[in-house]
Amino acid sequence: MKHYTIKMFRTDYNTNEKCLRAIFNNRYGKDFECPKCHAKGNWYLIERRKRFDCSCGFGIYPLAGTIFHKSETELKDWFFAIYLFASSRNGVAAKEIERQLGVTYKTAWRMAKQIRLLFSQGNQVLSGMVEADETYVGGKRRGKRGLGAEGKTIVFGMTERKGKMKAQVVPNAKRATIFPILNSTIKKNSTVLTDELHIYQTVAEHGYNHDTVKHKIYEYVRGKVHTNSIEGFWSQLKRSLDGTHHAISPKFLQQYVDEFVWRYNNRGETLFPLLVAEVAKRCVSGVGKMI
Ligand SMILES: [Zn+2]
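^ thats the input. predicted complex w/ zinc ion below
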């Protein structure tokens, strides 16, 4: 992974103009063809209006539909907050943004909320060898699996071997909850690896090859049959939530899981440019508001 240093950041994104251009280029590409006169890459910036105009008079607002839309916070401050997220391992608290940028807590909180939208999980399909498992997060007591889970929030996850993963907060670990998620996420005929918990006993009936790990007899690894990838993810997630001894609200936990999954899926990559690209990918409309 190439580390994106603060020095690089300060050179690349020290003005609102540079940030605006980055959004435009990520969203449309430098050589974007004007929809009106078909000239290519003929855009000049009217910074005051946060708009790019073609010489024919056609204009594009690259921030329309993005997480920055209608924000009065300067774009370079937004970029710095995104930089903080990209360089942190465990997420960024609003308090930290407040302190680093000198904005009000309310503004910082709103920025963090918007930036977290960049991590939300899409409809990616997993295939090949896929580990599936659920875990219990938060709460003081070491609840037994499936039982005594009061005060705990359940997360169900699926991980491709050396590939991508998906995870989501679920209200319970019943088949009626787990299988619709599993079926819509894992490609049929893939090999699903689980432990021997009874809910997973019907996996093969859903068009998958199924292999299990028998934790009870300490058979954690039997050749290729193990669930170490997802379990490694759970322990990292829990470690980073450590110190949270109260029940975690499902909504908060989902955001946290999304961020963690995004980091996992982009492991080994330089995260800052990827996050800037996510801004462009996740606009409300594909082409943005044009006038
Ligand atoms: Zn034009």
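Residues 250-265 form the longest helix (16 residues).
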